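Team,

Forwarding the record for the chain on the shared tracking sheet. I've put the sequence and predicted structure together so nobody has to dig through attachments.
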Amino acid sequence: QVQLVESGGGSVQAGGSLRLSCAASGYTLSRGCMGWFRQAPGEEREGVARIDSNGSTMYADSVKGRFTISQDNAKDTVYLQMNNLKPEDTGMYYCAADSCTSVQRFEGFGNWGQGTQVTVSS
């Protein structure tokens, strides 16, 4: 069964950086799609970034130019490098995975991690 474990969250001041990691097991990264999502209290979960089996990436407009998603297939790990963080980036960040045939844009991910908290203060 697919298992995803996020790490790397924390508290930073605006303008700072964090690198989130998602360790995957029971899943072949090179043959699937991976995504990062976030959710603020009382709000819907939103897609932040995704990467497909070909290495193609997609980002939410709010994070373009600041966040970078990447994967290391040898280590079965997906990363989200977050630079120039803003208070509005605060939220619980989740890693997601699924077959690329099941995913369109940020919709269709069926496997989720437990999340890691990111807090950005001004």
